[in-house]
Amino acid sequence: MKWCHVPVGGHALLGVADAGGSVELLRLVRSENSYTLEPFSRFALEKRGLALSLDWSTGKAGRASDQPLKLISSDSNGQLSLLKVSEAGPGLQAVATWQAHHFEAWIAAFNYWQTEVVYSGGDDGLLKGWDTRTPPTSVFTSRRHSMGVCSIQSSPHQENVLATGSYDEHVLLWDTRNMKQPLADTPVQGGVWRLKWHPFRRHLLLAACVHGGFKVLNCQRAVEEKQEACTVALSHILPNALVYGVDWSWLYFHRLPQAQPLFPLGSFPCSDPGAKTADVVCNLKVKGQSPASSSDPLVDDGEGGTKLQGGGRLKAPCGSRLHASRLQICDCDLYLEAANFDINLLATCSFYDHVLHLWKWDSS
């Protein structure tokens, strides 16, 4: 599931790739006291199979008025489907479908800076690039990963930067102008099922590493100084669980001036009185504190959290102590310049234990 980053017809749209072999759009509709998701449009893939991934062409902030709104989806038959979204008409419409991989096409993703270009990764171990104006001939084929390629994301902050992950337990960072050799190769001790760039901090990359837990990579030196591997800023293993899903929160923290009153939990110093509330974020509880990671020992920080020996603190769950420290959660641009980006919210979901964890990471 992925949200479109621009409203369509005045509504937020959620794209869903499902095991029934369809891509569906759901529209977020506000009622008097709540929001509901209503079906908007559905597209059934050509061959019977599972829809495995989707990506919106709007991953980068801002979209030219004449730029079409597009989706790319991959499926278990190894095909890619390019769809366009009509903002006034029937919704999803097929543009092109082509065979991309011999086995499952685990992942498909746009180049957010050149949305005619898409990338795909398959169980055949291949990473491919495509010009959607001239399918089905690939622009390049890379065999640099040694196993199935299952995660790809173009950087929304830096043009020509691409991250890929594989069952081979490596995250590769690429300059899209030269796909013969990656910029950096970072081993992460687990198959890389998801990669997510931070919405504000351009060099931070969050990885779901299945049995290797989750990691945050700092890619600044790899991009700017050609360092051969990204720096692992955070590493945490969840015992008896496989981490398949990760994401950053677009909520951020800012410190209130001493003269400004504390807002009650659940209210925001933002222009929209109906905006998301802080207590919704903080009421997500995990089923107990996770034991220490075997690769990065964690110690009690005296405040109910854990501290990485390499610096920074990782806490679960998020609690009301945050409010007492005069830190406010916000989701609008009003306080963006005063945001404290040393404190981040991130979420993970895992197999076997069936738990959604919400983490507060202090990277200062």
UniProtKB/TrEMBL annotation:
Give the top-rank taxon of the lineage listed in the UniProt record for this protein: Eukaryota
* UniProt keyword annotation of Methyltransferase present: yes
Q: Which gene encodes it?
A: DPH7
The protein's name is: Diphthine methyltransferase isoform X2
Q: Which UniProt keywords apply?
A: Methyltransferase, Transferase
Q: What organism, scientifically named, is this protein from? A: Camelus bactrianus (Bactrian camel)
